[in-house]
Amino acid sequence: MQINLKSLINKNINWITMLVLYLAPKIAFAQSSESPVGQGLSYITNALYGTDGVVICTIAIMGVGLLCLAHKLEWTFFIKTVAGVALLFGAGEIVSGIQSLVHNS
């Protein structure tokens, strides 16, 4: 049985996209309740912004970079990975910038 690398990558990208969209309200500092679901999402968000998130992103960039150097992946996938990490850790500043634009008008 041959594993199709492109479909495997697309499935992983779909899961990551679903996770980001699921966490988007919390990342955008939206109102949340103190329900068990809200507490669980808060825990995940804190883990992503803490040392666990930094370690996961570092390993992801290293792994994708090595696969690109070995010509197993295209370099555009590496650029997408770096852009995703930049968006993850820069989400707070992006939201603050948009809020300052809206409130200053």
Tell me what you see in this structure:
By secondary structure, the protein is mainly alpha-helical. 82% of the residues lie in helices and 0% in strands. It has helices at residues 5-27, 36-49, 51-69, 75-104.
How is the secondary structure organized here?
Layout: H1 5-27, H2 36-49, H3 51-69, H4 75-104
Helix pairs in contact: 3-4
Give the C-alpha Rg. 17 Å
> Which whole number gives the mean pLDDT?
80
How many H/I helices? 4
Instruction: State the separation between the terminal residues, measured CA to CA.
Output: 59 Å
How do the SSEs run, as a string of H and E?
HHHH
Q: Which descriptor suits the 3D outline?
A: globular
Helix content: over 70%
- What profile does the largest beta sheet have? none
Uncertain runs with pLDDT below 50, 5 residues or more? none
Class from helix and strand fractions: mainly alpha
Total beta strands: 0
Keywords:
4 helices, single chain, mainly alpha, 105 residues
